Amino acid sequence: MALIRFNKPFGVLCQFTDQRAPVARPTLSDHIDLPGVYPAGRLDQDSEGLLLLTDDGRLQAQIADPRFKLPKTYLVQVEGDPPDAALDRLRRGVTLKDGPTRPALVEAIAPPDLWPRDPPVRFRKTVPDCWLRITISEGRNRQVRRMTAAIGHPTLRLVRWRIGDWTLDGLAPSAWDLVPGV
Question: Which of these is catalytic: 44, 46, 65, 81?
Answer without folding.
Answer: 44
